[in-house]
Design a protein that fits this description.
By secondary structure, the protein is an alpha/beta fold. Helix content is 48%, strand content 14%. The chain contains 9 helices and 7 strands; from the N terminus they run βαβαααβαβαββααβα. Helix 2 (31-40) packs across helix 3 (44-53) and helix 6 packs across helix 7. The protein is globular, with a radius of gyration of 16 Å. The relative contact order is 0.19. Bound molecules: adenosine-5'-diphosphate (ADP) and adenosine monophosphate.
Amino acid sequence: MRLVLLGAPGAGKGTQAVILSEKYNIPHISTGDIFRSNIKNNTELGKKAKEYIDKGLLVPDELTIDIVKDRINKPDCSDGFILDGFPRTIFQAQELDKILEGMGIELDCVLNIDVSDEKIIKRLSGRRVCQCGKTYHILNNPPKKEGICDSCNGELFQREDDREETVIQRLETCHKQTEPLIEYYEKSGKLVTVEGRESIDDTTKEVLDALNGV
Ligand code: ADP
Ligand code: AMP
């Protein structure tokens, strides 16, 4: 299964990607995670990406596309992959098409998770994350012990770009630069839209139903 997850920041892409990655046994590739790990390790890419991420803007295409190209060429992607947070611009989508064409493969499905801006703001203000990659929500999906990761016992923290001012800019960036991808993938006949439900389990059911038809 070669899958792209589309949706606003906070729509639940990462949450569903972790579940799907386990179910289909294919890697979950999040460009946001790749940038955050570079920021943590203070790499040149991390330093450049941080300037944009902190402002709620997109990291330039030329810093983003090659990372994905290298990643999907790795052997663990031979049976499929889940792209979470990429592509985010029409240019990235066109480049992804070229990369896949060069590899002799194509996407099976682009799954769009639709959630209103009002809910997004609530989701992102309550999101807490762990260094190990697990994501929680203080109300919707709390850890067993407050502030501590169920999986690795690490301390949970709030992402810097989940502060309300940055969230508002991220939503605007999404409306302007990423939403046109809905039409782009509709035209290719690969788009399936599911409503991001109030519960994670209900959303997963909808997602699995949608993917069964692919
Ligand atoms: P994205 O990867 O699209 O930015 P996340 O998967 O990190 O979004 O989800 C954003 C926040 O919303 C997290 O705190 C997550 O626990 C919570 N969340 C995800 N899906 C749902 C859902 N269906 N209902 C309620 N909360 C959700
Ligand atoms: P995410 O973890 O997907 O919410 O991404 C966090 C931030 O990383 C975004 O707000 C962008 O600044 C940056 N980012 C992630 N993926 C991309 C991408 N495909 N193109 C440009 N910027 C990206």
